[in-house]
Amino acid sequence: MNGTSISFQANGGSCGGHLSFPESGSGPGVIVLQEWWGLVDHIKDVVDRFAEAGFTALAPDLYHGESTTHPDDAGRMMMALNIADTAKDLAGAVSFLADHEAVSSSKIGTVGFCMGGQLSLFAACANDQIGACVDFYGIHPNVQPDFANLRAPVLGIFAELDEFVTPDNANELKAKLESHGHSPDFHIFPRVNHAFFNDSRPDVYDADVAGKAWRLVKDFFSENLE
Which residue range forms the structural domain that includes residue 188? Predict the structure, then answer.
């Protein structure tokens, strides 16, 4: 890992996270939001990859030290997430990054995976400091973004064979965003499953499609944040 563990002010206390800087010393700011597993090495690696691509990136630890590799535990932790407290953690993360001397952009980007994808939309709807939002196959039944308040452009990345967030679910989300006057850029990649971007899961990871999605995300943030 090239990044470092940090702590920032949030929710009247503190929240941990993984922060990584580009070689140039500064770049557009990006918040990376975890899957239901927690702030695991894969998410930290994604933060470091953003730094290698020229961004200053932060992944807040929304489980405050808990993580797991077991789906049952992950589901329990996801459903136990206090959404009001999480909203404050997200606001703290955005404020911390927006004020950081290593951030060159006036707005912050958010990107999340699975649970984090839905939280990426949620954060963008709650915070006008967010200037670009990416949702990788986002799902969380208790997280309801207020699309009427959304000001950021949205990139959606989905999977044809996803049984958690089906193509129909993705199309319904796209239609909902459009009904609020937005023009989201949604991509449903064929022949891949939920979590196809996660290279720590050989059962679902697809290197070719993950590479295509990564290029879309980098271009999207470069266009909307720089």
Answer: 4-225
> Angle CA(123)–CA(35)–CA(70) in degrees, nearest 5?
150
Mean pLDDT of the chain: 97
- CATH number (domain holding residue 18): 3.40.50.1820
pTM: 0.97
Rounded alpha-carbon distances, angstroms, from residue 17 to 10, 39, 121, 131, 221: 12, 8, 20, 21, 21
State which amino acid sits at residue 86.
T
What is the band of 182 on the pLDDT scale with cuts at 50, 70, 90?
Answer: very high
CB 128, CB 153: distance < 8 Å: no
Using one digit for the tens of pLDDT, what is the confidence trace for 185-204? 999 999 999 999 999 999 99
Confidence of residue 1 (pLDDT cuts 50, 70, 90): low
22 vs 90, 97, 223, CA distance in Å? 22, 14, 18
